[in-house]
Amino acid sequence: MPQHVLRFWETKFAFIRPMKRAGGRRFYRPQDIAVLQGVRRLLHEEGYTIKGVQRLHREQGVGHLVAAGQGAALAPEPGLGDLIGGELEEAVRDRLQEALSGLEAAKARLDALLKP
Question: Using one digit for the tens of pLDDT, what is the confidence trace for 38-62?
Fold first, then answer.
């Protein structure tokens, strides 16, 4: 893993904290390596976003990240494409359509107010 990637991940994932030795050199323990492997797999192979990995850590803990690094099968993070292309329950679809109609009506009112 390139050094700049590790430093970036340290800024985005609070759970990545290697030990620092004299002179500021970082020492990655085996547990740190396992977590990094999990993060890499989730981001690069499973299609997760940084926020998705953060949420996964918050909801399921570091053990889940380690399991991902060891090859445990995980479902990819659902994205907007999954919601649009997938089957939505009729009640959810109706609520979304109702919300969209309300937003369109509000936009029309704002547009009317902004016209000189």
Answer: 999 989 988 889 998 898 888 888 8
By the 8 A CB rule, do 39 and 55 touch? no
- CA–CA distance, 45 with 102 (Å, rounded to integer): 39
Asked if 36 and 64 count as a contact pair (C-beta separation under 8 A), the reply is no
Rounded Cα distance, 79 and 48, in Å: 9
Q: Which of 2-6, 38-42, 73-77 is the least confident region?
A: 73-77
CA dihedral sign of residues 56, 42, 5, 79:
negative
In 3D space, the residue among 63, 96, 64 whose CA is nearest the CA of residue 77 turns out to be: 64
CA 6 → CA 19, 47, 57, 84, distances in Å? 13, 19, 17, 34
